[in-house]
Design a protein that fits this description.
Blueprint lengths: L1 E5 L7 E5 L5 H6 L6 H34 L1 H5 L1 H4 L6 E4 L2 E5 L3 E6 L3 E6 L9 E5 L6 E6 L5 E3 L2 E4 L2 E5 L4 E3 L4 E3 L2 E5 L9
Parallel strand pairs: 5-7, 6-8, 7-10, 8-11, 9-12, 10-13, 11-14
Antiparallel strand pairs: 1-2, 3-6, 4-5
Length: 192
């Protein structure tokens, strides 16, 4: 079968070309090819899902490894027994402690305390009684371990907790303060 084509670019004249046409049976068997762009998109989406799964499984592995190693020993309420070894190094105030409560009475606008350790079990409370809502209590935690806060911290002013080994707040913790900064940076100077 021949088809007549017009070549308008060159001379505008008409030429004849022979073009093979498939039979009706063959035409039914032919399926249109899927565009390459769609397959490429599907492959990119699948690769993205695989990468996300790889990242998720890696993150899960790290969390499981950390939780089985470090967290049970530091979240154990028997090991907490409230903040220990508090010494006021700048400003003025006092620290009193009974079985489940630590009370920090701050007399100056700014106060800094160095703690040997600072953990709060779920049945414990640390209360800061400060002169006003703008008062600041800086708490440098000198322990070689991270701190775990599973109980209550109350303050009418600002509380800053600094532990270079980290601070974990569990789902049982209750924080009721004017403002709180928890940092794992190096210790902040005691100068007020």
């Amino acid at each position: 079968m021949s088809t007549r084509l017009t070549n308008k670019k060159n001379t505008g004249s008409t030429s004849q070309m022979s073009k093979a046409q498939p039979s009706k049976k063959a035409a039914k068997k032919l399926k249109p090819a899927k565009p390459l762009a769609n397959n490429t998109h599907v492959n990119k989406v699948q690769a993205s899902k695989n990468q996300a799964f790889t990242l998720s499984s890696t993150a899960l592995s790290v969390c499981v490894a950390l939780s089985s190693y470090a967290l049970p020993s530091i979240i154990n309420p028997a090991l907490a027994a409230g903040p220990k070894g508090g010494v006021v190094v700048s400003g003025s105030g006092s620290i009193t402690k009974d079985a489940a409560e630590t009370i920090i009475k701050q007399n100056s606008q700014h106060m800094a305390i160095n703690w040997d350790s600072y953990n709060v079990a779920s049945n414990e409370r640390v209360q800061y009684i400060q002169p006003n809502s703008q008062s600041v209590s800086l708490n440098n935690i000198l322990s070689s371990n991270g701190s775990v806060i599973a109980g209550n911290i109350d303050a009418n002013g600002k509380v800053i907790l600094v532990n270079p080994n980290g601070i974990v707040f569990t789902q049982t913790s209750t924080i009721n303060v004017g403002s709180l900064v928890a940092s794992n940076t190096a210790y902040i100077t005691d100068a007020a």
